[in-house]
Design a protein that fits this description.
This protein has 8 helices and 7 strands. The chain is an alpha/beta fold and 229 residues long.
Length: 229
């Protein structure tokens, strides 16, 4: 499905230098074919490798690529927030740099937006975590969010999502905490849904996700609940 609406794709970056070129080429090739009016927004979250140099090189050769360069490491959640603030599309996607879901499923998310939803969240079909703590942590996150916020989610850890411009505009003006971006967007959404997305072969990249980041996410979720009252 080819769409001629303005599309923004926000990609958080942290120590992804090894995969950035191939990730960008895959994303660009898809967008040029299916969504020709697009921008890609890379948010460099104070990477310690050559990610900044790689993105800078890309922006010098492609005017449709924007760089948001953070001087301090803020974590994926706030990195996505900075990217949404910089977006200008009518439809805004978020996705990790290793492109964990099939890009062709973007069209399914657009269909849901056209059906009246303002937020479409991805759920990675058939995905299995290769670390036990990540599987347990993901299940606990989903449970916590259901108990604390009454949001019914099955894959809180999936960053692939699509939002309408109206929702992102509300997000830009909101005073809610942006430290857990998905909770902020859910809180502002008037009508959201979760759909299955096919998983893609991951680009070879060293994972930056740790047990300590998972614990920090739990505290951020609890903090969001406290501050939301």
């Amino acid at each position: 499905m080819i769409t001629h609406e303005k599309i923004s794709v926000v990609v958080p970056i942290y120590n992804n230098a090894l995969i950035l070129k191939s990730s960008y080429e895959r994303l660009r090739n898809y967008l040029q074919k299916e969504m020709p009016d697009y921008e890609i927004i890379y948010v460099n979250d104070a990477s310690e490798d050559n990610s900044l140099e790689e993105i800078t090189s890309i922006t010098m050769n492609d005017a449709r690529v924007k760089l948001v360069n953070l001087k301090q490491n803020h974590g994926q959640q706030l990195a996505l927030s900075f990217g949404l603030q910089a977006s200008s599309g009518n439809i805004i996607f978020t996705i990790d740099a290793d492109l964990p879901t099939i890009l062709e499923d973007f069209s399914l998310m657009i269909e849901k937006l056209h059906a009246g939803y303002d937020l479409v969240l991805g759920r990675r079909a058939g995905r299995k975590n290769n670390k036990v703590y990540r599987s347990i942590g993901a299940a606990l996150c989903n449970f916590l969010i259901k108990i604390l916020f009454r949001f019914s989610l099955h894959d809180f850890g999936c960053s692939t999502a699509a939002a309408s411009k109206s929702l992102v505009d509300r997000f830009k003006q909101s005073t809610l905490s942006h430290k857990v971006i998905k909770l902020t967007m859910l809180s502002l959404s008037e009508n959201y849904c979760e759909i299955d997305l096919r998983t893609a072969p991951l680009l070879k990249n060293k994972s930056t996700y740790t047990f300590f980041k998972l614990v920090r996410l739990f505290f951020l979720i609890l903090s969001f609940r406290t501050n939301r009252k």
